[in-house]
Design a protein that fits this description.
This protein is α+β, with helices and mostly antiparallel strands. Helix content is 36%, strand content 20%. The chain is built from 15 helices and 12 strands.
């Protein structure tokens, strides 16, 4: 089988579940198969946005992020299901368990997709045979469809998996790039959003080929280092490795909520912010991390969104500290317009053990009161171990167990178990 694998390069698969939430609901209730189905939030709470939908619904023009009322207008017989995240997490865990039967190098990137490095899996078959076996096993065991891209790097594998849905398997080699990638509009390239596409279009960059041949000085001036990275991608260059440990990396923890109605009542808005801070604090403490930056997001009735952040004087994880900065930011930057959505995020995370409190004139007195307790804790930790006891937090574990009631749908924590 070695002849089907490169001598120096890698063989990467990108496994992408098709219409994942809808497919899970169909597997759970086979009577839904073949019918237009959409997963959406509660329309009474103004969260009636299509999260995902079946291919039957898509044939009517129903799309992800479309308002529910608009989807129903296009497809009057549309079946609506509210999300069942416990069900989706169980299906996701089953999918990743299958992937790990073929390689130890499996990197989950979301609840319904992941990368695999199968370079050393040649004893299990050719890359096409492995991809076909994975696809068939997921379908037979979980009754779920997926598409798989096969390529020498992550970017090309991701691009390939998008080319044939549902239940497609696509090989994309570097020599295929001029024929398969370059003719595509630049907005269809993975990693290019609408705003980035507009900026690229302003340079005359309309297709992926234009991007591959674009002037690097202009790209860097317009998009910074990301401009050069996108040019590399357009030329099929991606040096990222498949990293199974990436699910343990935390860059930020946040929560947002769409309000039941647009409101200008400051008390209601601050109460919503307080609830968000409590959720963010809970998740930070579950992860045993703290953050040094607090950010708020405010979206008004006209869908205009602003985000504002500030560095905390000391790393934060407790609700009162996050709320202090969040309220300060909100009061300073809210212009009084009716608010539709609020969000709170703590960024620049680090392990609690690595955080060093920088005591200033205001925090010194309260910290000094705790000094006798800290001395006792230090003595106990020295005798029984660093993580044997701590002040006000649970004992630290390298891989905390997943609690579905306390987490969000798109978090990868449940994959850590």
């Amino acid at each position: 089988m070695n002849s089907h694998y490169p001598k120096n390069g890698r063989v990467i698969l990108h496994v992408d579940m098709n219409s994942f939430y809808a497919s899970v609901e169909m597997a759970f209730d086979p009577s839904l198969k073949g019918k237009p189905l959409a997963i959406a939030g509660n329309p009474k709470e103004r969260k009636g946005i299509i999260v995902t939908c079946s291919y039957e619904a898509r044939s009517f023009g129903v799309k992800t992020t479309m308002p529910l009322w608009e989807a129903k207008k296009l497809c009057p017989d549309l079946i609506i299901k509210t999300p069942n995240f416990d069900r989706y997490r169980a299906a996701s865990k089953g999918m990743f368990d299958i992937l790990r039967q073929y390689s130890d190098l499996v990197e989950p990137v979301s609840i319904d997709e992941g990368y695999m490095d199968i370079t050393d899996s040649y004893e299990k078959g050719t890359p096409l045979e492995i991809a076909s076996s994975i696809q068939n096993q997921i379908k037979s065991q979980l009754d779920l469809p997926c598409s798989i891209g096969i390529a020498p790097n992550k970017f090309l594998a991701k691009t390939a998996s998008d080319m044939k849905k549902p239940m497609g398997i696509t090989v994309l080699r570097k020599r295929d790039i001029p024929l398969k990638l370059w003719p595509l509009p630049v907005i269809e390239m993975h990693g290019v959003g609408s705003k980035t596409a507009e900026k690229l279009n302003s340079l005359g960059v309309e297709t992926c080929k234009d991007l591959a041949q674009a002037n690097e000085i202009q790209l860097k001036s317009l998009l910074g280092i990301n401009g050069l990275r996108l040019k590399e991608r357009a030329n099929g260059i991606d040096r990222r490795v498949v990293d199974p440990d990436s699910i343990y990396d935390y860059k930020s923890v946040g929560n947002s909520t769409t309000l039941p109605k647009d409101t200008t009542n400051q008390s209601e808005l601050l109460a919503a912010i307080e609830r968000l801070c409590a959720k963010v604090s809970q998740r930070l403490q579950q992860k045993d991390v703290v953050g040094s930056t607090v950010q708020i997001m405010i979206r008004d009735k006209y869908r205009k969104t602003i985000t504002r952040s500030r560095k905390a004087d000391n790393p934060v994880s407790h609700k009162k500290d996050i709320l202090h900065y969040s309220k300060e930011l909100f009061i300073k930057h809210w212009n009084g317009d009716p608010v539709r959505l609020l969000g709170v995020t703590v960024q620049d995370l680090m392990d609690k053990d690595d955080a060093t409190e920088q005591l200033d004139l205001f925090s010194y007195e309260s910290a000094a009161k705790d000094e006798p307790l800290y001395n006792v804790l230090s003595q106990l930790q020295e005798k029984f171990g660093k993580h044997s006891i701590s002040k006000g937090v649970k004992g630290k574990e390298k891989k905390p167990s997943y609690d579905s009631k306390q987490d969000t749908s798109f978090n990868k924590d449940f994959l850590r178990d």
